[in-house]
Amino acid sequence: MGNSSIGRLPEPWGALIDRERTISFSFEGKIYEGFEGDTLASALAANGELLLSRSFKYHRPRGAYTFAGHDANSYVQIGDEPNVLADMLAISDGLSASGQNYIKSLRVDYAAVGGRLSRFLPVGFYYRAFFRPKGIWQWWERLFRRAAGLGHLGRDPDQRYFDKQYLFIDVAVIGAGPAGLSAALAAASEGATVLLIDEAQSLGGSLNYARFQRDRSDVASLREDLIEQVTLSDKIRILKGATCSGWFTDNWLAISTPQRLFKLRAKFVIACTGSVEQPMVFRNNDLPGVLPASAVQRLLRLYGVRPGSKVVVATANIEGYDVAMDLLDAGISVEAVLDINQSTSTSETVKQLSGRGIAVHQSYAISEAIPGKGMRSITAVVINKLSASGETTGDGLKIDCDLLVTSVGYAPLGQLACHSGGQLVYDDDVHSFVVHNQPQRSALAGSVNHRYSLEAVLADGRAAGLDAAQAIGLNPDAPTVTAPDPGSACINHPYPIFPHRKGKDFVDFDEDQTVADLQNAVADGFDHPELAKRYSTVGMGPSQGRLSSLNALRIVRRHNGKNMAGTSVTTQRPPFRPLSFGVLAGRSFEPERRTPMHDWHADHGATFMPAGMWQRPAHYAGNAGSKAQIDEQIAEEVAAIRTNVGAIDVSTLGGIEIRGPDAAEFLNCLYTFTYDKQPAGRSRYLLMTDESGRIVDDGVACRLGDEHFYVTTTTTGSDAVYRSMLRHNAEWRLQVDVLNVTSTYAGINIAGPHSRQVLEKLKSDIDFSRDTFPYLAVRQGSIDGHSVTAIRVGFIGELGYELHVPWSQALALWEKLFVAGENFGIRPVGVEAQRILRLEKGHLIVGQDTDGLTMPRDAALDWAVKSEKPYFIGKSALAFSGTRPKSRCLVGFRLLNSCGPIPEECHLVIRDGEISGRVTSVARSRQLDEVIGLAYVTPEQAEVGSEFDIKVAANQLIRAQTVATPFYDPSNLRQDF
Amino acid sequence: MANFSPKTGISIVDLTCLPRTGIKGKDLSPWIQSTEYEIGAESNRTYLQSDGTLVARLSPGELMLLADPSDPSDEMMVFSLEDDYQCYSVRRQDSHYWFSLAGALCSDMFAKLCGVDLSGENFPNHSIAQTSVARTSAIIVRHDSSYTPCYHLLGDSSTSRYMWSCLVDAMNEFDVAVPPE
Questions:
Q1: Quick one: which H or E segment has residue A469?
Q2: Which residue, among A257, A593, A734, A736, would best test binding to B if mutated, counting the most B CBs under 10 Å from its CB?
Q3: Which of A142, A272, A656, A677 could form a disulfide with A180 if both were Cys (CB 3.0 to 4.6 A apart)?
Q4: How many angstroms separate the CA atoms of A577 and A66, rounded?
Q5: pTM assigned to the model
Q6: What ipTM was assigned to the predicted interfaces of this complex?
Q7: Is B86 near chain A, with CB under 8 Å?
Q8: Residue B25: closest CA among chain A residues belongs to which residue?
Q9: Distance CA A41, CA A295 (A)
């Protein structure tokens, strides 16, 4: 059951909640009610439930600590999403949440027995255990893997919609507290556009709950005034409920919301990220019922939650007295106030407190909190007088209470600045970290900059805003420097750590590290904070050391005897808060290119396959389900080309126009062949090598005029070839113009013995007859009103024409070809059939039959290399490689047993048990009634008639024989039909 | 669409069927001087011609001409490229789709697809950005209409369907006017 002393305060307490709107939710299977505006943690607290989670190592009961999302104590499971911060999650109707990291139930956790074994689990024990006897680690590993991690992740895809958006602004202000509001207004007043970012849905930050040593109504009025100014400013854009998760080079900020990641570019960044209140260290300081002052003020002012009925306040600064006043104002009994300073505070607040009859124990500290049932609450605290050296003395005095409030100072939330090169360094003046090496074009303001009084915070924010305006050139005369806050030295206690002989005095709540653990780490020789961190894991939990680094550093330094000034903590890395993978991934953009005939293909039963970004018809098997049915369809498509006529959509081939007086010379330099004497109206093979002589692309060069070439590339190589051409054109300064026309012209390959007849049925000014339009010729004209560039090609080994037609006219021409070819039984042919057709001709595909090491002679393409040319890319490398023996050859092969298993691409060629090559292409050819393929083999295996083994699945070796290519129509009679 | 307002929403229309063309080459500037086109030297900005043709200067050596959507004519798409100049025609009609988006929130919508700030004074009227939109190359031309921000988006024809779906998806959160397919 919950704590019955906890509940709701009357209005006006609870500025964020709407008491008219009740919300029902469940936690651990029990139904609760809260109000709109509540977080899960505040609503549970209002119901008396402080217990939210179990600690990672000892499974100790924990409740939200900061109520501001800075501690892992408030991690809960929401459906399939683990580690959701309960103190940041707004409740909604039907919300179902549960605790994490327990066995049986959150209230009764069997795994908590581990806490009793803590004496056997000293710091770094895992470095010294579990590896003896040999082989035992495998047993332990299973155990640890089960215990590791918090919560559970759903295995189903997250169907929520996530996306990303860029933002651009003059000045980004992170944090809309008093410093942020002041900074935004100052920057905007100088003409800067400002983006004001805050995690909360309500602007104001600490103005919403803090007292600032004055009448609370004054603070509230100031808040309303600032917010009104900010809201009315047309220069200020406000982004609520958004977390700055990362701050990267050149002021690139990652701003996350639940389902969108903003990528913000700011000319200037003002970090008003505030600070996080630090724990006092004593025995059982981690239990529900022990809270920092700011958390109590949040519960009171924001959510109207009465956090306890009998309260003890332990403070080292004036803010502890503030919260005592708040508690009294709320009608809550303050049993005692302990001041752990040696000297007595004389502030007005202290006098007021004394005037209200509250006992102030000067120079006292907490040595122990007495747990209630199940350690889910506290029932009392033990206080001890402090010695002159700051250590507890005497037997102690027990004071009954159900809430202990501590106020011992802050650590600046400078993590974001550290993402972009800053460093948190210990400073003796403020007994805390300060940010060094702050990123350029940025400023810190407010408590992150150790300004704590309201006047100092507002002045600091204003100065930062003016500084920003000046930095971006809006007001060169703006004053930019503010004086330090004289009160900042009195906020942080230098050593609020009071170890207990029985331990359980926690320094790190995430990792359950105690004072003794750190002392032992130092004693073991890990006496530098960096070493102690890695050895003990202090600061390595989800909170990233926000609540532990400062105290850990103090302990390490006290026990190694070194001065702490200038000491840094370990690197702070993004994200500032945990992010879901969905937010990080966002909406994925996967560009897809389609040819003009795409819908036609789909309507005719095409199954598409990707080729780079393109979608190409693999085959037209329609709804055929089995592989046999698909293979049959592919075989029919092959047969259509071999015996009749078929059309292949080759629009995906790259197309580049080279125009200008030096066009031929440009190609001479780019490709291995020669083009200066290529006559207009003819095409010629293209082979491109890189500087190391490796094949990178191939295609066809069509000379359309003396100064005009139309060049095709491979489907996936067009962009790279085009980039290469642009680069070399800039370097060589030839008189040419290079234009990528890949999507200007679509391509149709109509092939087969009847292809000419089909074309001749359409009205055209091109003579397609054999003698006037021979193999490799190029003609330009029109077909049924569509302008085309027609090329006689032979890639698939039959009479064939590639028709390159303007993109917008391609579909119309395609459809006309199918009407004209209807009587011939023309069929659309997909990529799968095309690959078989070209393989039967022994033609390679760059990228499939070549790799990053293939040189022309490896693939028997020496004929396409004109070494006599003065220059082409890769020439010198090819000349050098020609002096060395060949190590491999791409050859054609056939399987000796065509009825057995068929190898797949990349299956290995084996010689004497060693790898000697690999298969690059393989297919069953019905035309040849054989299984044929291409493979890299050793030069010895390349001899026609040689036999070699191919290792297929299950380590089976099958026998293949090297054969000459082309496999089909070796005399090339059919393509010259 | 009946309640659509350009102040609060975004409209999109496919102008791919309208005439457009291009010209490029190292002699572009002298070629321009030989014509009646009024085109400045500054790249990445547009120059509106008296006949409504919008000339986009993409670089010192490249122009793109877009027909006036309110009065498209094929005539302006015919150049006389004489041999005196090393200038070459570019078939923009086929190579590029042409979408037009209008509305005060267009730049917010584009920010979901593109890393260039297309808002207000950072991308004023007549500006051109040649950049990546939803991971594809695209040309964005700002050409406002009656004080309503208007952006012409041109990109590779083969990606038109993909880009249209990306735009409609990005527009979903706004008050949108999308013509039925």
A1: helix A454-471
A2: A593
A3: A272
A4: 14
A5: 0.89
A6: 0.94
A7: yes
A8: A737
A9: 11
